[in-house]
Specification:
By secondary structure, this protein is an alpha+beta fold. The protein folds into 2 domains: 63 residues; 83 residues, Glutaredoxin (3-Layer(aba) Sandwich). It is 51% helix and 11% strand. The protein is built from 7 helices and 4 strands, in the order H-H-H-H-E-H-H-E-E-E-H. It has a 4-stranded mixed sheet, with helices on one face. Helix 1 runs antiparallel to helix 2 and helix 6 crosses helix 7. The longest helix is centred in the first third of the chain and has 16 residues. The two termini are 30 Å apart. It binds FE2/S2 (inorganic) cluster (FES).
Length: 163
């Protein structure tokens, strides 16, 4: 068991006890997956096995739900999650150029994490900031009116912040 430290498992278990009284099994499972992702950053296999055990449901059902909701990360993610909005407003303002700049600068494709574990690149639908398109979100912060150069500058700021 690598990721599933006892402390985090205890927290997840306590959360499951707390919400298991809820009537709707599906939303209960989703709430548990949210909590697991908040604790681990993604949904580790060994942790999901234990969730399945405790909830007495097949692990395959958990993976079915987790993959249906794109929000959940099935693989470990980097310290910074970079989400590029590919919604219509952003797309017409050059989101594809922003995305290409990120792929080139980070040396990864969408869905991948850099080797130094500093960045994970994702695509998103409308992030609700169309007025400042094209937009990216890094963790929970929105940046708008970007072009390739501004995007690379932004990534460099995050690289420096790490030191
Ligand atoms: S389409 Fe990108 S923020 Fe709305």
């Amino acid at each position: 068991m690598t990721e599933a430290t006892q402390d985090k498992l205890d927290q997840l278990s306590a959360f499951m006890d707390e919400v298991s009284q809820k009537e709707y099994a599906e939303s209960y499972l989703i709430a548990v997956l949210h909590k697991a992702q908040a604790l681990y950053g993604y949904l580790p296999q060994d942790v999901m096995d234990q969730v399945a055990d405790k909830m007495q449901i097949p692990t395959a059902h958990i993976w079915g739900v987790a993959t249906f909701y794109h929000y959940f990360n099935l693989k470990p993610v980097g310290k910074n999650i970079v989400s590029v909005c590919m919604g219509t407003a952003c797309y017409v303002k050059g989101a594809d150029k922003v995305l290409e700049a990120l792929k080139r600068e980070l040396g990864i494709k969408v869905g991948e994490t850099t080797e130094d574990k500093l960045f994970t690149l994702q695509e998103a639908r409308c992030l609700g900031a169309c007025g400042i398109a094209p937009v990216i979100m890094i963790n929970d912060k929105i940046y708008g009116e970007l072009d390739a150069k501004k995007t690379v500058d932004l990534i460099n700021q995050y690289r420096k912040a790490k030191k």
